[in-house]
Amino acid sequence: MTITFAEKLARMPGYQAGVPTGQAPEAIASGNIAQLASNESPFPPHPKVVEAIQQTAAAMNRYPDPDATLLRRRLAERYETEPSRVAVGNGSCEILLAAAEALCEPGAEIVYAWPAFSMYPYLPALTGAREVRVPLAEGDVHDLDAMAEEVTAATQLLIVCNPNNPTATHIPAAEIAAFLERIPTHVTVILDEAYVEFQTHDDPDATLDLLADFPNLVVLRTFSKCYGLAGLRTGYAIGPPKFRAAVDAVRQPFSVNALAQAAGAEAIRHQDDVLRRVESTIAARLTVEEGLQGLGLATSDSHANFSWVDLGDADEAAVLAGLAEREIAVRPGKALGGPGHIRVSYGTAEENERFLRGLSEILD
């Protein structure tokens, strides 16, 4: 008898990492690869965060706190809310997957823009809900009007990636508020803000003020980017207590490990460090985008820690191959829904210079 698997397995898109599996840790540690493919921070965690991880490591014979009590309390204090409104997960991806499991089933609809975060297509594939992809508007930004028009009585989940990955564009909080006014309250709106600290339109906390006016809103964030904790996978969401209870109900217990909890609980206390990282990233953004423009390449208006580069007449595969030969890793646009583009993260000053120099050589 042949083993059979669930039909939904065939619908799964499959995630492509920025560096080949099994190669990344050694190659990056050796300095051979300029890892500009995964939107990570080039800066290590704050020393106090490393210290908290080291102290916690001695107790790895014990299970982590299943409620992530300290981490959720620290997040609640930082954002002046209640711990009951804070959900944490093994990266923000886990919260997205859990939200789909808790909210959606066959007959439901999930609305999101495209191109956007490559995790979103997993949600309808897992739940059997119908996906509604809304093309981006001119300038590679979310077309909020078109998204609002796609909402029906069956829509259970609507996701706005802001700043958007892979295009790096951002919609100001005032426009998000006007959009939310148009969305029926039966629709849970997830505002996915993994890169919000890097945008320059608003105070990063501006969208959190919307939670009081829109009970169907969930704000999703992560420690992976500006806190430099991608390796520990810690994400969080702030929304209605019922949302937190729902995502907790469908996930495995102990999903956020003890090291991740300790790191996040300490990292959230160092907002001065976050500000320094953001300032360094914005400076790198200016350098990289000016360099790209000097090469005759257009980019979207970036409000993230990466650029979305239109290669124009250059062949995407040839550019990727040339960069790979120079041990520079970027993400191909085709795999992200934007053929003819590349997505490049900002690294150290040396890595950014190496990327621009390599790209110049390839285009010449």
Mean pLDDT, nearest integer?
94
Number of domains: 2
Spatial order of strands in the largest sheet: 2-8-7-6-5-3-4
Spatial extent as radius of gyration: 20 Å
Looking at CATH, the homologous superfamily of the largest domain is: Type I PLP-dependent aspartate aminotransferase-like (Major domain)
Task: Describe the global form.
Answer: globular
Give the name of the CATH architecture of the largest domain.
3-Layer(aba) Sandwich
Q: Within the CATH hierarchy, at the fold level, what is the topology of the largest domain?
A: Aspartate Aminotransferase, domain 2
Report on this model:
With 364 residues, this protein is α/β, with parallel strands linked by helices. The chain has two domains: 8-45 and 271-363, Aspartate Aminotransferase, domain 1, CATH 3.90.1150.10; 47-267, Aspartate Aminotransferase, domain 2. The chain is 37% helix and 15% strand. The chain is built from 13 helices and 13 strands. It has helices spanning 8-11, 24-30, 47-57, 69-78, 92-103, 122-127, 144-149, 173-181, 241-250, 258-267, 271-294, 316-325, 349-363, and strands at 34-35, 86-89, 109-114, 130-135, 155-161, 188-192, 217-222, 235-238, 298-299, 306-310, 328-329, 331-332, 341-345. The strands form three sheets. A seven-stranded mixed sheet has the order 2-8-7-6-5-3-4, with helices on both faces. Strands 9-10-13-12 form a four-stranded antiparallel sheet, covered by helices on one side. Strand 9 (298-299) and strand 10 form a beta hairpin. Helix 12 (316-325) crosses helix 13 (349-363). The chain is globular, with a radius of gyration of 20 Å. The relative contact order is 0.16.
